[in-house]
Fold this protein.
Amino acid sequence: MLLAIRERRSEIGLRVAVGARRRDVLAQFLAEAMLLAAAGGVMGLALGAGAAEVVSATTRWEARLSLETLLLAGGAVAAIGVGFGVWPAWHAARLDPIAALRGPP
């Protein structure tokens, strides 16, 4: 997320210059962080469920997923998305529009 903010400084500066509020920029980048975390979480859950099925089919081990495990994994993904998205989003919201439009630091 920090890299995305660094690459999109001029876009952020332009948005703020034309009237976007700090909370709008914060919400945009926090939503992006949550979307990336959710996509990664869904792919991880699918790979884990697939691996559990392969293990069950090829060995005598019984690998099964419970609803509680899936909910716990989803909660962990959401917490990680928010945790690692808040600071970069806050940083993007605090950018000075003039400096952001001028170019890289």
The helical segments are 2-7, 9-17, 22-58, 67-93, 97-102. The mean pLDDT is 87.
